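Notes from hallway chat w/ T.B., transcribed later so I don't forget. T.B. wanted the structure written out for a chain they're using in a teaching module, and asked if we could keep both sequence and structure tokens in one place. Agreed to drop them here.
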Amino acid sequence: MTASEPPADVRNPTEVAASGYSRTRLWWEIALALGLTVGRSAVYSVLSLIRTLVESGSLANQETQLNQPQDAAAFWDITYQVLGWGFGLMGVALAVFLLWEPGNNALHRIGLDFRHVGSDILRALLLAAVIGIPGLGLYALGRALDLTVAVRASPLDPSWWTIPLLLLAAVRAGLTEEVIFIGYLFDRLHRLGWGWWTIILSTAALRGAYHAYQGFGAIVGNIAMGILFGWCYRRWGRVMPLVLAHTVLDVVAFVGYPLAAALWPGVFGPPVSPTPSPTPTPSPTSA
């Protein structure tokens, strides 16, 4: 299989749909997997948006913070954040476990491996540019139109552990969203007989709901990202370039945000007299 050739289960929907999987069992599996991972966060995220609109009627003076410190003491903050990172990846491990079949390596099947490092990196950088540059404009427009809350990343303090922890958070977000939204759901919904564009649009909508706590601009932007990523996965059959692109985007957001806030405080800085938005529980792990 070449880097641009989708795996067999992406090319042959009839063969996969007739593999003997129980449709009822598959629906229960999907519900349980999503209920323990991104689906749960999506519900809290939508509720957070609704509550913000009901209580304040405006998103302009709201803000939400990503990657909040877990404790005032450095040792415990590092410990809790590293543990949170590890436990957060259990959802990814669960998705891969559910995809695994005897004689069929799930990591190879969804393309979460290092067999095509060069092409994966090039594709990831291209996707990051295509998504990231318009994304900044959409965020600024959303703030101007009162459709997006102010998203505040953790400040870059001089502590040595700050950037490594932010990098780990970016990796976790990339793996969580792309492996579950794309690798896992594409396989399961495909086995249920769904058409490819139905799968792409439905998973993109779920991705948008997952980021609803950031406002309507984030919903639109992440739906567009989900459509593009879904189309790319359908074409390439590999989730790795999507994970890398997502990680790059979040590294820029997590590490580059304080610089952007300093240069353009009216757009990226905290709102005047902010009223903190309710944080979803558990809070989404991606920017």
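Follow-up for T.B.: Residues 162-191 form the longest helix (30 residues). Might be a good example for the class.
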